[in-house]
Amino acid sequence: MAAVTADQTTQSTSGTAEAAGQAVGTAPDAADAARLAVFDAAVAADDRIEPRDWMPEAYRATLVRQMAQHAHSEIIGMQPEANWITRAPSLRRKAILMAKVQDEAGHGLYLYSAAETLGTSREELLDKLHAGRQRYSSIFNYPTLTWADVGAIGWLVDGAAITNQVPLCRCSYGPYARAMVRICKEESFHQRQGYELLLALSRGTEAQHAMAQDAVDRWWWPSLMMFGPPDDASSHSEQSMAWKIKRHSNDELRQRFVDIAVPQAEALGLTLPDPDIRWNEERGQHDFGAIDWTEFQEVLKGNGPCNEQRITQRRRAHEEGAWVRDAAAAYAAKHTTPSTRTAQPAQHVEETA
Ligand code: 3HC
Questions:
Q1: Residue 231 within any structural domain of the chain
Q2: Distance (Å, whole) CA 249 – CA 255
Q3: Per the record, which residues fall in region Disordered (predicted)?
Q4: Integer Cα distance of 212 and 309 in angstroms
Q5: Is residue 30 in a domain?
Q6: What separation in Å is there between the alpha carbon of 66 and the centre of ligand 1?
Q7: How many Å lie between the centroid of ligand 1 and the Cα of residue 228?
Q8: What is the CATH number of the domain that holds 212?
Q9: How far is CA 118 from the centre of its chain?
């Protein structure tokens, strides 16, 4: 987006709209109105909003909220799968799972970096996660009880994530949209490895087939909850869609996911644990049963099976990793000061060799 940047204008002092995050009831001044008009026109034209462009404070806050929640989900999501790295049934499966868990760390990194372009540091966001002031996806508060859960997470959880995230590649905020392109490519590999793993189990012994079915039974409903509350209970969807942060509502994406998953389950030879799933000729979509939104709310309140375990482990990993961050910061500081760059070339060469 060109024209008005945050540097060229002062940040707003008077409001033009509630959505602009400014004081309601305050008379808009001409500069605010002009900046908002440029922003609105860019969104309407499907231009990207870039970090130095002026943006309404509420748009910035919504992005930070969603991107932080997304980044936190990526790194907390490493835990349930990492649980199986040491017990993967073959070297091939172990290598795949290690690569996948590393990918999730990378996704967190892209997203924290993208959020930094909005003026929030990674430290600040992690502090909020650790203090319980920011969320991560409900799905990662469920346990991985068997090896088949690794397959169910890949097929269903990563499948749901892709359905939700492909439209985010067209998010109006440039850094988020660009981060999502690579993330979606990697998630696609994750989804396929899960599907292939479940297929092998489903076609294996009776016990392996039963293990795959049990995993699907436990992960199906929580996967549907990943898309968020139903549209009539979604507090942010309408505004986020108007700003083109979200391109589709929670229910639209959930429906899309069900329609994709039903034939895949058939191909896998597994059953989805919902007797109400059937093709609706009139709608051209599958009907499906009622989601237990009480369970969803309980998980969001911290009462899921693994909430406590996940956040405790995350805090511990952060504390135990302090020395790595300190060492990296010291190394970076040493190599960016003018004295080390110019006055001591021999030492520099020795240290980096
Ligand atoms: N888990 C936890 N909280 C959830 C949630 C979920 N599955 N779905 C919604 N919520 C929360 C919202 O954050 C909001 O709470 P807040 O006001 O305190 O922030 C509240 O429930 C109301 O929901 P809304 O529908 O109004 O919220 P959004 O408009 O933000 O929509 C969303 C929710 C669809 C999850 C959206 O934020 C989104 O698309 N986020 C980006 C994708 C993302 O976060 N994915 C995480 C999935 S896991 C993952 O990516 C890792 C991969 O490896 C599998």
A1: yes
A2: 10
A3: 1-23, 331-353
A4: 25
A5: no
A6: 7
A7: 6
A8: 1.20.1260.10
A9: 17
Residue nearest to atom 42 of ligand 1 (CA): 70
Nearest Cα to Cα of residue 229 among 135, 88, 307, 155: 135
* Inter-residue contact 158 to 184 (CB < 8 Å): no
Establish if 2 belongs to a structural domain. no
C-alpha pair distances (Å), 161 with each of 53, 155, 180, 211, 311:
29, 10, 11, 23, 21
- What six digits make up the tokens of 197? 């793993």
**Considering the entire predicted model, what is its pTM?**
0.89
And the tokens for 65? 């909220």
Containing domain of residue 124, as a range?
44-313
Q: Which residues contact 110 (CB under 8 A, 6 or more apart)?
A: 179, 182, 183
Residue nearest to atom 38 of ligand 1 (CA): 66
Angle in degrees, CA 97, 98, 104, rounded to 5: 90
Based on the structure, what is the number of domains in the chain?
1
The pair of structure tokens assigned to 67 is 């991107």
pLDDT tens-digit readout, 43-97: 999 999 999 999 999 999 999 999 999 999 999 999 999 999 999 999 999 999 9
pLDDT greater than 80 at residue 9: no
